[in-house]
Structure formats: structure tokens, C-alpha cells
Design goal:
about 35% helix, six-stranded parallel sheet, alpha/beta, 19 strands, globular, about 450 residues
């Protein structure tokens, strides 16, 4: 009988790419891939360990798998990813039922790890985190027309609240020729939409070429036949250049969408975060972006309750968000992460205050989104089809203004059958909170 292997990938899209690379190695070895952990002989869990809620999700998942193992449904459990890398021996000691705990640098050797645990050998092993595979074939676990394209690993920004540099190491770019080769391979296998990701995409190339080469990379990606939409996430505000904006404005395949995680607008708070700028510089940047790309969709991420945040500083943030009216916004209560500089700051904000402030901003943003969505009613736009909702008896998809698994959807009525991956022209007729209801106005794929 063939050995069945399942993968549970937790956390961010960058982690998902790592999981897809491991899946390729596993399939290449001849093991059978299964989607349900309960059907597997061996389950690999690629954990997230970024903030407290992610750690709790990872621990709960491990405990559920340990229960399945105790019941005899699965034989072996392998734990890797950020939680394993961050806590190492502590993770191995905490979960004696787990058969292997390995670091991110060991993921390229996942076949050897599986062979060891199948031979009833427990493994606790951590290569250098710099050995994490940064290129190679993948088994896509996303919808068939869509893929993430990871262009760098690690981070050099060293924000005082963030454990990523400690977990993943310093920033290192994937050579441009390797990125382009992978993108071409994805296009040849039916991918028409790419989302470019890294911890800081705007830093791409600095370590290899002495300067940011993101604009050039994006131009080259736009030349790849078969790719229709290219989206860029996680652009740091201080590194958004005129050259980058000019490329985004000029290239039709680049969707007019920027994810700019500003985290806060108060200058003192930003400096304590080891970040740059203040409300004035951020407002000037946002104004420039909107002038150069008038139809841009802007997303940001905020942290409330950072150590020392006063009521006045929070009010400044709320007023800034109200004035800037981001199209998309996520807000997180500050998570006090051990090993980070901010965790040792003496003026920690009570947890209930952090969360209350986050709730206020999200309620405020919901009203902004509602107003913006109502203003879009009657517009015609392109949407890509993601699936069929049997309960609503209609198709659903996304517009170029919506990132996969993050933003809203469009529920689409059509008199003719559609297919996953179709690009269709849709009229937006109704608003459902963050989503739309629309109708296909042409059967032809939109350019």
C-alpha cells in the first residue's frame, strides 16, 4: 500500500508557498497526497508563530492531530514552520506525541524526515534558517488559475513588535531569473493571476543588486504570456518610489491595488515601532499615489494599543483613517511577543483597551466601506470566477480591487454557465456588507 501524506498549512501566504514546495517533493517521492488529515498516514503541519492568536491556532491544530493519532486514524505527525522554528526544543518537549519537529531550514529535506518517522525514529532537527528553500517546483493548493509568487525571504526592518526577523532571518531576495522562471512555469500550468509577496516586497533586490528592483521585476512579469492580473502586497510606505508608481500606472496587467501596512500614523508611536514617517508624510504619500493612479485601491494594516499609545494618539489614528478613507483595512490589537523589544517596554496598554480600540477602528472602517461600495453600484468591471454557491444558486468571484482570501467577493448571476478562472464583465447591482451582487453583462472574457 502507498503511504498517504497530508499537509496542514497555517498562517500567511508565504507559509503556503513553503507548504506547496514540500508537497512537490513529497509527490515526487511517490507518496500519495490527501487533503483530509484523517485520511493520511503522515501529516505535516506547517505552523505559524507570528502573534498569539496564530500560536493558539497552531497548538490547537497539533492537539487535534495528536487526538487522531491516539485514535489510530493517523500514524505520524511532523511539525515545522514558524512556531517550530521559534520555540524549537520547547515545542518538541511540549508535544511528545509529535514524531518530528523540524525548522524551516529542514523543509527541503522533508522526504528524509518522513522516512525517519516511518522507521519509528523521532526527529528534532534544526538546520540554518537560511537553508529554507526559496525556489523550486510546487503543488498548487490554491484555485487552479491563481498562485502566490514569493520573491524574498526574511526581513531586515526589525520593527520592535515583530518576531519575523528572529524566526525567518534577514531579508534575502530570490534572484530575478529564478522568479521569472517560476512565474513562466506557473503560467504554463494555467495560472493567470499572480500575487507577488514577501515580508517587504519594496525591498526586493537590495541585497542582490544594491537597489530595489521591484519595478523592473514587475515589468518583466507583465511580459509573460498567459498572465492577466498581477497584484503586489506588503509595500512599505517609505520605499514606494515614483518609479514603482509609474510602472503600476503604465502596465495594464498590474492591477491598481496596493497593500501598504502603515501600522500607525503618530510619529512618536512609529519611532517606537522602529518605523519611519508620521501623519504628514503618510498623507503626502497617499495623495501622490492617488494622483498618479487615480483608480487605485488602497489597503492598509493597523496596530492599536502599542505600548505607550495614549488616548490622544489613538484619536489621531482614528481621525487619520477617517480622513484618508482606505478602501480596505485590517486592524489588530497589539500582541506582546516574547523576544521582541516592544515586549519589554514598561508602558504596556491593557489588553482589553487594545482590543476595544481595534474594534472602534473596524466599526469606523465598515461605515467607510459601506459608503464606498454604495458609490460603486451600477459600475461595470471585470471579475474572475472562483466557484459556484449552491445555496445562493449563483457564481462568485473577485474584482481586481479584491485580493484573494483577504477582501470581498462578488456573487454573480449569469444566464449561461461559467467556469472557474473565467474573466467576465459584471455590473454591480447590490451591496452585501463587504461583498457585491452583480450580473454578467457579456459572455466574452474581459481584457
Amino acid at each position: 500500500m502507498s503511504i498517504k501524506v497530508g499537509m496542514v498549512s497555517l498562517g500567511c501566504a508565504k507559509n503556503l508557498v513553503d507548504s506547496e514546495r514540500m508537497l512537490h517533493l513529497i509527490r515526487q517521492r511517490g507518496y500519495e497526497l490527501v487533503t483530509e488529515p484523517g485520511d493520511a498516514d503522515v501529516v505535516v503541519v506547517n505552523t505559524c508563530g507570528f502573534i498569539q492568536s496564530a500560536k493558539e491556532e497552531a497548538i490547537d491544530t497539533i492537539l487535534e492531530l495528536c487526538q487522531l493519532k491516539a485514535e489510530g486514524s493517523i500514524r505520524k505527525i511532523i511539525m515545522t514552520g514558524c512556531l517550530a522554528e521559534r520555540y524549537r526544543q520547547e515545542a518538541a518537549d511540549e508535544f511528545p506525541e509529535v514524531d518530528a519537529v523540524i525548522g524551516i531550514g529542514d523543509q527541503g529535506q522533508i522526504i528524509d524526515v518522513i522516512d525517519h518517522v516511518l522507521a519509528d525514529e523521532r526527529m528534532v532537527h534544526f538546520c540554518s534558517k537560511l537553508d529554507v528553500p526559496m525556489s523550486g517546483r510546487r503543488v498548487l493548493s490554491t484555485l487552479p488559475f491563481f498562485a502566490y509568487l514569493k520573491i524574498a525571504e526574511g526581513c531586515n526592518n526589525c520593527c520592535t513588535y515583530c518576531a519575523i526577523p528572529m524566526i525567518r532571518g534577514g531579508f534575502r531576495s530570490v534572484p530575478m531569473e529564478d522568479v521569472l522562471e517560476e512565474a513562466k512555469w506557473l503560467a504554463e500550468h494555467g495560472v493567470t493571476e499572480l500575487t507577488v509577496i514577501a515580508q517587504d516586497t519594496t525591498r526586493y533586490g537590495e541585497d542582490l543588486y544594491g537597489e530595489s528592483r521591484l519595478p523592473e521585476l514587475l515589468e518583466q512579469l507583465c511580459r509573460i504570456q498567459g498572465i492577466r492580473w498581477i497584484r503586489v502586497l506588503y509595500c512599505y510606505p517609505e520605499r514606494i518610489t515614483d518609479k514603482l508608481l509609474e510602472v503600476m500606472a503604465r502596465e495594464e496587467k498590474l492591477v491598481k491595488y496596493l497593500d501598504i501596512p502603515i501600522q500607525h500614523c503618530n510619529g512618536d508611536i512609529l519611532r517606537r515601532m522602529n518605523r519611519q514617517g508620521d501623519a504628514g508624510t503618510l498623507a503626502a504619500l497617499l495623495n501622490k499615489i492617488r494622483q498618479m493612479i487615480p483608480d487605485i485601491t488602497l489597503r492598509t494594516t493597523l496596530i492599536t494599543g502599542f505600548p505607550g499609545e495614549t488616548e490622544a494618539q489613538f484619536t489621531e489614528l482614528a481621525e487619520f483613517i477617517q480622513a484618508q478613507r482606505f478602501d480596505r483595512l485590517g486592524c489588530f490589537a497589539y500582541s506582546q511577543e516574547e523576544g521582541t523589544r516592544a515586549a519589554e517596554f514598561p508602558d504596556q496598554v491593557p489588553e482589553d483597551v487594545r482590543q476595544h480600540r481595534a474594534d472602534i477602528l473596524m466599526e469606523q472602517q465598515q461605515l467607510i466601506v459601506e459608503e464606498k461600495n454604495n458609490a460603486r453600484l451600477g459600475q461595470v468591471c471585470t471579475a474572475v470566477i472562483e466557484g459556484y454557491d449552491r445555496w445562493a444558486e449563483c457564481w462568485f468571484g473577485r474584482t481586481a480591487a479584491d485580493a484573494p482570501d483577504i477582501d470581498g467577493k462578488v456573487f454573480i448571476r449569469s444566464e449561461t454557465p461559467l467556469h472557474i478562472g473565467d474573466y467576465v464583465t459584471v455590473r454591480l447591482d447590490e451591496v452585501l456588507d463587504y461583498d457585491f451582487v452583480g450580473e454578467v453583462v457579456t459572455d466574452e472574457s474581459a481584457q
